[in-house]
Amino acid sequence: MKRTRGFGLFSTIIIIIITAIISSIATGVIMLNNSSTIMASNMKDLTNDTDLLEFIEVYNTLVTKYYDEIDKEGMLNAAEEGMLNFLGDKYTTYLDEQEYNEIMNELSGTYNGIGITIENNKIIVVSKNSPAESAGLKVGDLITSIDGEFVEGLSSEEIKNIITKNNSDKISLVINRNDEVLSFEVEKTDLLSATITYQVLDNTTIGYLKIDAFSENLDEQVSGALDYLEGRGITSLIIDVRNNVGGYLSSAEKTASLFLENGKVIYSLETTNDEYTYKDTTREKREYNIVVLINSQTASAAEILAAALKESYGATLVGIKSYGKGVVQQIVSLNSGDSVKYTSAKWLTPSGNCIDGVGLAPDYVVAYQAGNYYDTQIEKAIELLS
After folding, report:
1. Where does CATH 3.90.226.10 sit in the chain?
2. Contacts for 37-41 with beta carbons within 8 Å, 24 or more apart?
3. Has residue 131 got a pLDDT over 70?
4. Cβ pair 191, 200 in contact under 8 A
5. Of 122, 192, 289, 339, whose CB has the highest number of CB atoms within 10 Å?
6. How far apart are CA 131 and CA 186, in angstroms?
7. Strand partners of residue 57
8. Contact 190, 110 (CB under 8 A)
9. Structural class in CATH, domain 111-192
10. 93-113 b/e with 16+ CB inside 10 Å = b?
């Protein structure tokens, strides 16, 4: 049975790409708040499952009659992992509580910190209206210690972890500023993660919007960016989703709806028994020409946006073929606090194509070459929009 919907249950699915391809934990999940209820109702159907009863019989035999002590928890964990591995699906995995929290924090659109961007121990950005700005930190400051721990020689990621994993409300920083040693007490708070950058390209009326991840609040950020760009008179737009490994499907859906005409198909989901088609239900739309930049690490939710803009808006794709992840996952929480992430559906482009293992082919194949003042793929997009 085929159904047509606006934002619904599956809108909260997150699309993923395996972390082996690119350093990211933006993996795809849907958190079912009623998972316990679902499991309880399904248990009634399992009472007559002879295969399950045999498994229980084997388990009971080993627990009661095996000659040596048994780590029951370890044995059951191995059985659970065996079931997941048996499927041969790289996206169906077991998540411990820490792994789950890392995924959700990565995609929440917020982070707990002080509002700086660092390169090794050098501050290269101080976010506006952040605790770091209020405390008096400046671009160019060198962090020498955090809460008494010397950080010179540590990587950016190691220093970031020291800050974010600190559970106190304030952190103490010692800064070297032009050979002057300064001390600061800086508050930690929840801050908005910027997942986009945008500008009007010099000497043009072309807007440029780069999307780094499909975080929970992406559509709000993109809406604000469009207001800014359109207020400065853009007549066309480049959307850059190169190296974007995805995130929330709902974010791709809402972001596409900022551009598409009401009633246009964004994507479809195909499950075991049903196909659900998701269309734009909003009044908001754009009509200017759009070029979308893609590459081999454009995946999942980024591919959904690119496909929707190409097939339902008429955008042009430039770059090289995308990764090709056309399946979605859900997460079910277990009583232990851990979770199981499993593939629950495949998604289809507005034209009904499944790109899993295939990817999106660009309209213009352009190899990436870049220097201080040029990027071949952006240059091609400018040529097409000029």
Report:
1. 196-327+345-385
2. 38/332, 39/332
3. yes
4. no
5. 339
6. 6
7. none
8. yes
9. mainly beta
10. bbbeeebbeebeebbebebeb
Q: What is the pLDDT of residues 235-268, one digit of tens each?
A: 999 999 999 888 888 899 999 999 999 999 999 9
Q: Of all residues in the chain, what percent carry a pLDDT higher than 70?
A: 85
For tokens 């350093």, name the residue: 23
Extract the runs of DSSP E, i.e. beta strands, from 71-194: 93-95, 110-113, 116-119, 122-126, 142-146, 149-150, 170-177, 180-187, 189-192
Beta partners for residue 292, in sequence order? 239, 317
Confidence of residue 70 (pLDDT cuts 50, 70, 90): very high
Distances in whole angstroms, Cα of residue 93 to Cα of each of 55, 82, 296: 21, 10, 24
CB 4 within 8 Å of CB 269? no
Q: Can you say how many angstroms the Cα of residue 48 is from the centroid of all Cα atoms in its chain?
A: 40
Nearest CA among 329, 279, 377 for reference residue 7: 279
Cα gap 85→92, rounded to integer Å: 8
CA distance 278 to 256: 11
Rounded-to-integer distance, Cα 25 and Cα 42, Å: 31
Return residue ranges of the chain for CATH 2.30.42.10: 111-192
Backbone angles phi, psi at 251, to 5 degrees: -70, -40
- Enter the tokens of residue 383: 């040529």
The amino acid sitting at 200 is V
Torsional sign, CA 126, 127, 131, 135: positive
pLDDT digits (tens, 9 = 90+) for 355-377: 999 999 999 999 999 887 889 99
Say if residues 194 and 225 touch (Cβ distance below 8 Å): no
For the chain, how are helix, strand and coil distributed in percent, rounded to 5?
Answer: 30, 30, 40
User: Of the candidates 348, 280, 266, which has an alpha carbon nearest to the alpha carbon of residue 308?
Assistant: 266
Count of alpha carbons within 13 angstroms of residue 220, beta-carbon side: 7
Residue 229's closest CA among 252, 257, 258, 250?
Answer: 258
d(CA 231, CA 234): 8
